[in-house]
Amino acid sequence: MLRWIRQQLGFDPPHQSDTRTVYVANRFPEHGHYIPQRFADNRIISSKYTIWNFVPKNLFEQFRRIANFYFLIIFLVQLMIDTPTSPVTSGLPLFFVITVTAIKQGYEDWLRHKADNEVNGAPVFVVRSGSLVQTRSKNIRVGDIVRVAKDETFPADLVLLSSDRADGTCHITTASLDGETNLKTHFSVPETSVCQSVSQLEALHAVVECQQPEADLYRFVGRVTITQQGEEIVRPLGPENLLLRGARLKNTKEIFGVAVYTGMESKMALNYKCKSQKRSAVEKSMNSFLIIYLVILLSEAILSTILKYAWQSEDKWNEPFYNQKTEQERNSSPILQFISDFLAFLVLYNFIIPISLYVTVEMQKFLGSFFIGWDMDLYHEESNQKAQVNTSDLNEELGQVEYLFTDKTGTLTENEMQFRECSINGIKYREMNGKLVPEGMTGDSPSGSSPQLITEELLFLKAVSLCHTVQISYNKSESWLGGDPFSHTNSFSFSHMEYYASSPDEKALVEGTKRIGVAFTGCSGDTMEINTFGKSEKYKLLHVLEFDPNRRRMSVILQTPSGGKVIFTKGAESAVLPFATTGEIEKTRLHVDEFALKGLRTLVVACRHFSPEEYIAVNKRLTFARTALQRREEKLQQAFAYIENNLHVLGATGVEDKLQDKVPETIEVLRLAGIKVWVLTGDKHETAVSVSLSCGHFHRTMNILELLQQRSDNECAEQLRRLARRIKEDHVIQHGLVVDGASLSLALREHEKLFMEVCKSCSAVLCCRMAPLQKAKVVRLLKTSPEKPITLAVGDGANDVSMIQEAHVGIGIMGKEGRQAVRNSDYAIARFKFLAKLLLVHGHFYYIRIATLVQYFFYKNVCFITPQFLYQFFCLFSQQTLYDSVYLTLYNICFTSLPILVYSLFEQLVHPDILQAKPGLYRDISKNSLLSFWTFLYWTALGFTHAFAFFFGSYLLMGEDTSLMSNGQMLRANRQLMFGNWTFGTLVFTVMVITVTLKLALETQFWTWMNHFVTWGSIAFYFIFSLFYGGIIWPFLHTQDMYFVFVQLLSCGSAWFAIVIIVLTCLFPEVMKKVLYRHLCPTSTQKSQMYSNRVVIGDDFALQPLSRAKGQLGKIRWSRVRVQSAQNMTLLKPSGAQGRTIGTC
């Protein structure tokens, strides 16, 4: 029990060794000294709380917030000492905030519990005691043999033992793990693949040794030892043998596998990692403002305490009749009495800290995030994908972006590849109508029409059609599955085949060779078949040297039909050509550069023929490296480097990746909005520059600077200095910088400051040949620079995840490279073009809404509590409260909460179409301008000004005058009854509620029926509640101070006069300020507001689509433009140009 508790607290990790030993079917050794390892059960737990720890854990997390903790302290102080206000005034709002948050978090966790129970209770079949037994998923143990049928998901991480196929292979999809929908082939070792029945599996004696659980989905190191007739056979295990929990079985009737990782130790569960918490600039400003208001609160409390003792030190003020001290108070310690008074004042003024601010901000972010998903302009009809919000905490940050980092492939481009050109033996070819046509010839020429290819061309095409990991799906019947996998070639044509590949490049290349006449037709076990112009050829697959980002190449070792051994290699030219010794190396390099200048993605293809002795050495090295349990990756890299050498260059391929729709327009709009765009890509320099030019990232008139192929720190530093001097000397408006990965590593090592100076002077930066971690480093470099700009990263692949997580805001593109980027992003969109509206419209709206919300909250709380502070000067600092405790409690919860919440959900300073048409408006709100210190100071000063007007206006208009009763008589006899403490406080409170509500109404530009309802409804609710509250004697209240006060107040004509005068006095200067500013020195936003109120149709009106023209005319009707005669109508044009008259409208 103690060990379990230590494990839960993280003090005692359950696994001490680097490897785990799994006995298949839990057939443990019979010798007595064996101690079984302890493994996790198969329950998935994604929930945060249990029924036992919900209350303490949730309270602990909520009270970590400074505002909640502060109000808890105030509440405890009210309980412990005699304070002027009831503990309910602090306890009820605190209880409300804590309860609402707890209910929200509890409901979300209940949904997680429900989902967990559904997964853990799913039925599964396991082999136990010689039979197939049905049980629940949570009961699977490490070592159990599990049966999984077609289209079922794997309930744990399983090592494949056998399948219904003779070769022991199966096909799976990992869409739920990484989004890749292609079929992947997994293999079993030959010794276990024959065990296809329960009885054979029960008799199997095998032990799996593997690494301890880790989160990497694509890494698995292990080996299996099978005992057959007293002999131990050892086979290596890798990722191709592991079936991951959450993946789905396809095109295979059933499989058997042994569970090696279960429950929260499965790779899927280990990827449930919590992303680092990102905090928006608004939240940081809000916390800074809270600290300032805390200082104001402490200052007011200290000043009040000091003044109380200073005034009471005079004889004439000492112990007035209404504040006589008790005997205990006279005998108490002066220091304790001072502390007690200070705490009492602290309680009295504590509402200057807005406790409901946090819960209102949370509700605004949560509810506001739905607008992104509901926006049909962000919906991609072709893929049926809408924008999604993974975190709502950063909504307003979308309106503050200064630097945008984007991937190229799949983000700016479609990631739909088409084979276009190739270079074979130093000759360039292009594909035309399914034929390879040499450069300079047409597809109709006799030499181009012949399907006969020379030996070099044929070998190149065979290499391309064999060097891959492509899978095939056949649209016809699957009846051939389990039989001869190549029988389909006799039954129907190749047109029924569909290729699936993890890389779009591979799929495009295999489809290209198929169109030319060399078709990959299938793979069965270790046999690959191609069809060369109608002739079938079978190759034995001996080894696959998998692609990895460091080598940037992949290889296959095959046995040819004639019995020879050959390796085919393909990869980036920088990863293949340096290891080539023969072939047209220089011509191929030249052709690769030419392809790249056209924007094509390039790969170099090479081969090497092994002699029997060479192959024996190669096979020995690979087998040794693959069976190693320790440092397997390092040993494999050494083996790959030994094998992929002395290559013969066959040629190169050029694949086209089309730009996405409206990418150039989007980049230009973002640039006009003041956002600097950086492209970070793994492509080679020439390809990246070509795509940057075509997408508008680089302009033709831009001065392109280069930091490429730097080999030393000194060389890099000198080049950076030359670039810096060139930028200063050149009188070019815009510069662009191109930097490669190697030079970037040198620049970031010791010359960060100089590199950043050069980058910031450039309007566009292109980083090519970038590794994933380098992308994150570049983002971090900008993010942590002295200016601390807000960064946004957008990408679509797993290699973009680190960049997305590093940036302030991460956006995933729902592309074809899986869903890892989407899963790790803050927001996800289907296309790059949607970024414009997401930032310029949604970002703009979210920021202005929450900026006003935060400052309005502080403003209305200053208005609320300052009269309480001023009142102490008139009651000799006796800590008498000005407002009734019910008003104190409900001010932030009921009377003023809904208008600002609705405002923060629907406010629009400018119409969305104008925001997109004028991207420069985005600059107006950049650098957190609406929450600057001076703006905060203005709202705070305004709050104090209005508070003084509320208090002294009420005092001057009502306090020193007689009261006008309903019968019109001037009665002094009723003065004390009519105008006492509670009447004065209620008058101040009434003026305050009306003024702060109308102040928000003045700030509102976009009125909906909900705004009208909550604005006027809040004021009406206050009056109705006050009449109801003061019109009844409530038996459960110990005092009836407010009985008939509000009715008596409203029956007084001078009270109504005072309310109107004070409200007008407070708001009239605000109205005048807005009018004068709008007409004398309007901002860009205000100009756009006036612009959007007019109907503007340009000269291209007649050329617009009918639907858009109808929309324009619809706006004319909406603006109530009356046309007396439809024969002639003048349409306004922008910039003061003359209107255009059209004959008929």
Written account of the structure:
By secondary structure, the chain is an alpha+beta fold. Among the domains are: 123-271, Calcium-transporting ATPase, cytoplasmic transduction domain A (Distorted Sandwich); 379-412 and 659-835, Rossmann fold, CATH 3.40.50.1000; 423-440 and 457-472 and 497-654, 3-Layer(aba) Sandwich (Calcium-transporting ATPase, cytoplasmic domain N); 842-963 and 981-1087, no CATH class. It is 44% helix and 19% strand. It has 42 helices and 39 strands. Helix 3 (66-80) crosses helix 4, helix 20 packs antiparallel against helix 21 and helix 37 (981-1003) packs antiparallel against helix 38.
How many β-strand stretches?
39
Outline type: globular
Low-pLDDT stretches are 6-15, 445-451, 476-492, 961-978, 1095-1145
How is the biggest beta sheet arranged?
11 strands, mixed
Please, how many helices? 42
Structural class: alpha+beta
Mean pLDDT value: 79
Radius of gyration: 38 Å
Strand content: 15-25%
What is the end-to-end distance? 84 Å
Q: What helical percentage do the residues reach?
A: 40-55%
Give a quick set of tags describing it:
single chain, 1145 residues, alpha+beta, Calcium-transporting ATPase, cytoplasmic transduction domain A, Rossmann fold, Calcium-transporting ATPase, cytoplasmic domain N, eleven-stranded mixed β-sheet, 42 helices, 44% helix, P-type_ATPase_IV
